[in-house]
Amino acid sequence: MDNQFFKNIESKTGVNMDEVLKLANSLQNANFKDEKTVRQIIRKVAKIANRPVSREMENKMVQTIIKDGSKLDMNTIAEMMNKKP
Fold first, then answer.
1. Entry's InterPro entries (predicted)?
2. CB-neighbour burial class of residue 30 (10 A; exposed 0-12, middle 13-18, buried 19+)
């Protein structure tokens, strides 16, 4: 993709595209049945999105992801973070 495309996204969202791409690459081989891995991913997404995630919400997300990890993608995590507790 064109570098200007990413710069436009960064300026509109405030999200660093390098961080998003690094996260996307790390998701490719991640074990979504491993609690430690899932927690790390949730924390990375929260940091990139600049969204606080309470311990209670993190626990719910971890359990949901571990239970159905084969259907996980970044959109799923983002949607979970946007739900009201």
1. SpoVIF
2. middle
Give per-residue pLDDT as tens, 23-67: 888 888 888 889 999 999 889 888 888 889 999 999 998 998 888
Amino acid of residue 38: V
Is residue 85 predicted with pLDDT exceeding 50? no
Contact 20, 14 (CB under 8 A): no
- The encoded tokens of residue 3 equal 């570098």
CB 39 within 8 A of CB 28: no
Cα–Cα nearest to 48, from 83, 84, 85, 74: 74
**Tokens coding 22:** 């690094």
- Where do we find the tokens 């949901």? 64
**In this structure, what token pair is assigned to residue 23?**
């996260």
